[in-house]
Amino acid sequence: MKPAHKILAAVALALSLSGAAQAQVAEKKSLTIDGARRVIAGAVAEARRLNAPGAVIAVVDEGGNLMALERLDGTFAAGATISAGKARTAVLFKRPTKAFEDIIKNGRTAMVALPDTFFTPLQGGVPITVEGQVIGGVGVSGAASAQQDEELAIAGANALAGGSMGSGSMGGSSMGTPMMGGTMPVAYFDQNQVAAAFAKGAVLLDGTGRNYMVHASRREAAGQAEVHDKDTDIVYVLEGSATFVTGGAVVDGKTTAPDELRGASIRGGQTRQLRKGDVIVVPAGTPHWFQQVTNPFTYYVVKVR
Fold first, then answer.
1. CATH number assigned to the domain with residue range 217-304, chosen from the 4 options 2.40.110.20, 1.10.3210.10, 3.40.309.10, 2.60.120.10
2. Among candidates 91, 95, 96, 54, which has minimal Cα distance to 71?
3. Is the pTM of this model over 0.85?
4. Per-residue model confidence as pLDDT tens digits over 238-256
């Protein structure tokens, strides 16, 4: 039998070697196909909200490899290639592609010499970041503008980073822990995610697998009259003021998506002045219209179906 001090020394050595091995291996999160589909769903939901047909949404993993792609009706032939290039650029450089477009606009044109196999310096690509780790990228092309391309990409990235990612969306540990007996993870957004969403106006939490959505909404001008046949809107004003009309009849109303109607204005109805801290609930099927807003006007919208 070995002396006790030799046994203790052997155990200590084994533990030290184990600790050294662990120190050399870091746990990494990875994007799964389910997670990629959730990113697509978030971007598509935002495209429908903004009435932005024609977009192509691409999602890549952390190595820039294409995982999922969605082509909305009315897009152009090169949209798939461009959106995938934007997503690849965002993840490989870990920065939104708008940063590179701005750099080139400001005179550093030498950057266009980088191979286009991994560099597409056009606005509309953003990294997908979860708990400080870049796990993929999303790129959008073909929306109404470059700005809108980026808005859809941000909505897609936020749909995953905002808690729609149970164990099937990422490899590694999940971001939230489901409640006992529940099927959905807790959705948590840090202040940087929330600020980024309000800066553009974006879907904070998509409706995948739920009967509700959360929008971090931003308006800088009056909008169209809207009717949601199946969604009740719960609005909480964060900043600014607005003239808000509910009820009445929509003028020149047209169906823009399933269960969604848009129009130029509202005839009749009740007018209210919304201000910071106000809450208003608009039941499904009720016409409503932001007739006038301050710039900016920011507000949460919880959509309940």
1. 2.60.120.10
2. 54
3. no
4. 999 999 999 999 999 999 8
